[in-house]
Amino acid sequence: MRIPPVLSYVLRRVAISIVVLIGISAVAFSMAYLLPSDPVTSRYPDISNEQRAEMRRQMGLDQPLIVQYARYMESVFRGEFGRSLGTGNSVGEDLARRIPATLELAVYGILLGTALAIPLGMFAAIRRGRPTDHVLRLVNIAIQSVPAFWLGVVLIFVVFYQLRWAPTPVGRLSPLYSPPPFFTGFYTLDGLLSGKFDVALAAGRQLILPVLVLGLGVVSPLARITRAAMGESLGEDYVTFGRALGLRERQVVLGDAFRGALIPIVTTFGFVVGNVLAGAAIVETVFSWPGIGRYAVTAITTSDMAPVSTCILLVASGVALTNLLVDLSYALIDPRIRHGYGK
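Above: the chain's sequence. Below: its structure in token form.
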């Protein structure tokens, strides 16, 4: 029986993603366990060699790397991901408290960046070669040139310390408020759903600065690709034909031209989502945000290997899932892929 082209496309992309994740898990585990620092020595520098050897035996660090990897993967499939030496909990328990914090920060940052980037890129494409376009390109270059950690520190100094327009940039919620009941893990949404509007407002204020830093990181690449793709699409024959038929300029730009530019825009969107997930560690460290990025940084400084491996695997899984969704969206955007003409 012949498999439909679109199903074959989906199965092929899913299989590729699974193979990539398996490879990443092996690389992440090996990187963490081949670090020159020793977790036992890092935590207990004054113990004797005999005590160090016994602790390594109890932790299973004296076993061959392949045995340690098999044991780690077993814990991954159980949802435990090994045990953290720093907290004493399973890594799965620690991540369950931290993943919602990272997701809330990342989702709002991506939404803000996308809401700014695509209209700016479209406007620059429409005004291509004019003074407005040149100004937007200079602004875009300036945003791209600013490191996230530097921008975060500057915003803290100016907006919080000098102007007092933002609350203390530490954590997800002011100590004056208790976390809302759990519904989604997003304090802003959970506060609204539980009727605690003051908590939702307080959580939203804590998000302003870190979300702004993450969002600006999304703007530059997405706006640049949107401008280039829309500029090329506006010059296509079907756009010229639509204008010749008397269609409104808004309909031509937002309909035919934007639809023709979607493939590179969606591809770049997948790329910037990966950048946000990978770069969240810097923003979380600057703003003391209790997410997986800060958890990974703390684990690295203490040679806590199970959290390091798991955080790398988790971020890589998020990137792989995003890329898979981007690949699948191609079949919705481009009919040639649905009918078997694309790979």
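Residues 197-234 form the longest helix (38 residues).
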